[in-house]
Specification:
Elements: E1 6-14, H1 17-26, E2 30-35, E3 38-42, E4 49-54, E5 60-67, H2 71-80, E6 84-92, E7 97-103, E8 109-115
Parallel strand pairs: 1-4, 5-8
Antiparallel strand pairs: 1-5, 2-3, 3-4, 6-7, 7-8
Length: 116
Amino acid sequence: MNSVGRLDHIAFAVPSVPDQVARFIAMGLTVAQQVDGYALVVDPASGFKIELNQEPGEARFRHLGFQSDDVDAGHEELVAEGVSSTEPPHRREFARMRTAFLKDANGLEYQLVDYD
């Protein structure tokens, strides 16, 4: 799977993005992007990113993100390996990326991203 890429981020759904961002800032992370109901925080030492999406209920894992130079080819490779496509490759302007979402037989979700 040459086009899938490398681990880029982990995403969580949390009941309050502002509260979680404040907690992560206190822990030394920095904010790369924040809008209503969404934030991307970064560990300045490693560059690893945590994506936060606001949803009611308890915090939960959403997906693992992989940075890919070719989202379409990575998507095709994973589908050929039996991973289900939940969102085919498409553009997300607010995040300045091309992306796709998939889910494997164990229920783990993956996002492929190619940033501008």
